[in-house]
Write a structure and sequence with these properties.
The chain starts with 6 loop residues before the first helix and ends in a 6-residue tail after the last strand. It is 62% helix and 9% strand. Helix 3 packs antiparallel against helix 4. Among the domains are: 136 residues, no CATH class; 129 residues, Heat Shock Protein 90, CATH 3.30.565.10. Strands 1-2-3-5-4 form a five-stranded mixed sheet, covered by helices on one side.
């Protein structure tokens, strides 16, 4: 767990200009301290230097103040600082800050500018260094050691700044990649949901079409027997009423789900129902997964959409168990309650399906479809490792409102 940074550090990162100005102020205080200390020290001989005056103070300020803009305009800051140092040596003023601002400016150029521009600033720094030492040699002996030491310090400052720039660019690239992957993951998840909703809508389209066909047939039968067999006509009208209500409910859900047509023609094959579960179980067992069927409560006719949803959920859950559970046995339990159907598919295999986390959150398209189907009827679904091992899928589908 990452520790939070102290408040002053956070403030400095959030206010870069103020941080740079503070750095310039600190260097200014250190320069003034060095000036006072060396002026009052008997061990430092300043007799060969020009006496400090207003012009000298202005040159010192020109070496320090631009540091406040070392991130906003690093090259300009370096040019001003380097020029002030060269003029200071030309005027034979003592450099009390030891060229520290120049090293900082070189570091800032290398860390904030593109490399092709940063290399040019390195050339500016070396030219200023050679000019300063050449001008200093007019008044005192030239030292090759000073040239080498200062050149090494300039090179170190530039390399350090370039490393910072490289690391910053690498970190930004990683963050961008992570953000892009997160966006792609969200887009893929939404695409899976949309595809599943479209597929479910096409299936419900067939359910509604079938219901309308039943209504037409029953209406014709009621018309033919209305005069001679009122009881049969009444039964037909009752069937028409029930089927019409179910068709309206399915049509309402269909229109609420379908966001756009994907150009695929509806499947003309009959949609599977609960009565087809035996055939499904036989197929799964032939593929290598033994399945037990358990029915609790009194079975009753279900709305066509729920009938289809239950079949699809069982189909997807058994397919996942067959693919990912390994050697296992599955149990499908249908519990009929007064106002809902509870469906459980449990296996005793490895306990995790591909694309599903330990918290039971589904990542595969099939499990996304389960959630969409159950949510369509106001139910809920859970999928995850079972309490006694293996993997389980549990769905609850209310149907009282559509079965009247």
């Amino acid at each position: 767990m990452a520790t939070s940074q102290p408040a002053p550090i956070r403030w400095l990162k959030q206010h870069p200009f103020q941080a740079d100005a503070l750095l310039a102020g600190v260097i200014g205080l250190l320069t003034i301290s060095a000036w006072i200390a060396e002026s009052n020290s008997s061990k430092v001989d300043l007799s060969s230097y020009r006496h400090m005056n207003a012009f000298g103070v202005l040159l010192i300020a020109a070496q320090i103040v631009p540091l406040a803009w070392k991130r906003k305009a690093p090259f300009v800051a370096l040019v001003i600082i380097a020029s002030a140092i060269v003029i200071s040596f030309a005027a034979n003023f003592h450099n009390f800050n030891g060229a520290v601002p120049a090293f900082i400016a070189v570091f800032s150029c290398a860390s904030h500018l593109e490399r092709r521009y940063a290399v040019r600033t390195l050339g500016v720094a070396f030219v200023a260094l050679i000019l300063s030492l050449a001008l200093n040699a007019i008044h005192r002996p030239f030292s090759i050691a000073d040239l080498i030491i200062n050149a090494v310090l300039v090179g170190i400052a530039w390399i350090a700044g370039d490393n910072v720039r490289t690391r910053r660019a690498y970190t930004a690239a990683l963050e961008e990649r992570a953000a892009r992957l997160e966006r792609d993951q969200a887009d893929n998840a939404q695409r899976a949901v949309n595809l599943e909703r479209t597929r479910i809508a096409r299936e419900l389209h067939d359910v509604v079409a079938h219901s309308v066909s039943v209504i037409v047939v029953q209406a014709g039968a009621a018309r033919r027997v209305l005069g001679r067999d009122p009881n049969r006509a009444s039964e037909a009208l009752t069937s028409i009423e029930l089927t019409g209500r179910q068709a309206l409910d399915e049509l309402r859900r269909l229109l609420g789900m379908l966001r756009k047509y994907d150009g695929q023609a509806p499947d003309l094959a009959p949609q599977p129902r609960l009565q087809d579960l035996d055939a499904l179980v036989t197929q799964i067992e032939e593929a290598g997964l033994p399945v037990d069927m358990v029915v609790n409560g009194e079975p009753r006719p279900l709305p066509s959409g729920i009938d289809l949803a239950v079949f699809r959920i069982v189909q997807e859950a058994l397919t996942n168990s067959l693919k990912h559970a390994g050697p296992a046995r599955a149990t499908v339990t249908l519990s009929y309650r007064p106002d809902e159907l509870v469906l459980e598919v449990v296996d005793d295999g490895r306990g995790l399906c591909e694309g599903v986390g330990k918290d039971g959150r589904a990542g595969g398209h099939g499990l996304v479809g389960m959630r969409e189907r159950v949510a369509l009827y106001g139910g809920d679904v859970s999928a995850g490792p079972g309490a006694r091992g293996g993997y389980e899928v549990r769905a609850r589908l209310p149907f009282a409102a559509t079965s009247a």
